[in-house]
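User: Sequence recovery, please. Input:
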């Protein structure tokens, strides 16, 4: 559905994106990267908010700058900094957003109850958004993004600030929508990607360093991840020998999860996506 060719974006001397090449079809894609990696910039360009410095984006084999409304119509977008007018009720806000999208009153009368039900907010439709929790506001954001039944749904950090229950509910919403849409969502929370999709895109300092599946990334870490209990006072010494991924207290000892040369007394453990990401995050380029 979407094809990105040689896409770059500069802000003055700062390179935000460098030579991105990517094809996206129906399904869910998780865009993973640290803050400042270029995730939001890429999404803003994909929805037409920003223009690339160079490169092209094609939708159904036509360049999007030439399609105009034909491209905007199938788009749904929730930015990272999503604002909801506090004086509006959920229903009023969706009516307003629907009008901006060019939807008729008859269409909105049918669609708004559907999307409110879909994001489990039908009982709160007449409540002012100012009284909503962060998770409820995020769900309103998803509701406005899908109001026009988009074929392309782009969500920037949609799980930021959500509690565990809201994040589970959100992952279920996305999975339910993915059968007939291309969904791209960004996050720096690795567990959120693992819960929703196996399709992974990794950005690092504006460069795409991987576009593959979580299974392949995890397989590449097989035999490279270990755990060992160490005295707390020896942490700095071990930190110089291996790359520590996580650590936790266990009684008077510290259990470290690490990659690198196996140390005496270590046990191999099953790799996770987080292991791959931390192992490779400081590399400027890594291609599978």
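Assistant: Recovered sequence (288 residues):
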């Amino acid at each position: 559905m979407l094809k990105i060719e040689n896409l770059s974006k500069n802000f003055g001397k700062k390179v935000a994106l460098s030579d991105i090449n990517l094809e996206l079809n129906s399904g869910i894609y998780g865009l993973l990267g640290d803050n400042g990696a270029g995730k939001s910039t890429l999404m803003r360009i994909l929805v037409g908010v920003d223009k690339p410095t160079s490169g092209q984006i094609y939708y159904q084999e036509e360049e999007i700058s030439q399609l105009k409304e034909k491209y905007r119509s199938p788009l749904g977008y929730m930015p990272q900094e999503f604002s909801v007018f506090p004086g509006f009720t959920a229903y009023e806000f969706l009516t307003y957003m629907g009008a901006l999208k060019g939807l008729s009153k008859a269409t909105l009368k049918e669609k708004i109850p559907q999307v409110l039900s879909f994001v489990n907010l039908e009982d709160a439709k007449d409540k002012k958004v100012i009284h909503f929790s962060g998770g409820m506001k995020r769900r309103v954001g998803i509701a406005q993004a899908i109001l026009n039944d988009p074929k392309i749904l782009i969500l920037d950090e949609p799980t930021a600030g959500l509690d565990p229950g809201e994040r589970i509910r959100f992952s279920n919403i996305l999975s339910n929508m993915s059968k007939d849409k291309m969904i791209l969502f960004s996050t720096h929370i690795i567990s959120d990607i693992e819960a929703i999709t196996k399709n992974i895109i990794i950005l690092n300092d504006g460069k795409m360093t991987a576009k593959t599946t979580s299974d392949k990334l995890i397989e590449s870490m097989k035999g490279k991840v270990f755990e060992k209990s160490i005295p707390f006072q020896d942490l700095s010494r071990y930190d110089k020998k291996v790359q520590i991924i996580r650590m936790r207290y266990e009684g008077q000892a510290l259990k470290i999860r690490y990659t690198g040369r196996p140390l005496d007394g270590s046990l191999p453990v099953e790799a996770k996506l987080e292991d791959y990401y931390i192992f490779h995050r400081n590399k400027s380029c890594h291609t599978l």
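Residues 105-118 form the longest helix (14 residues).
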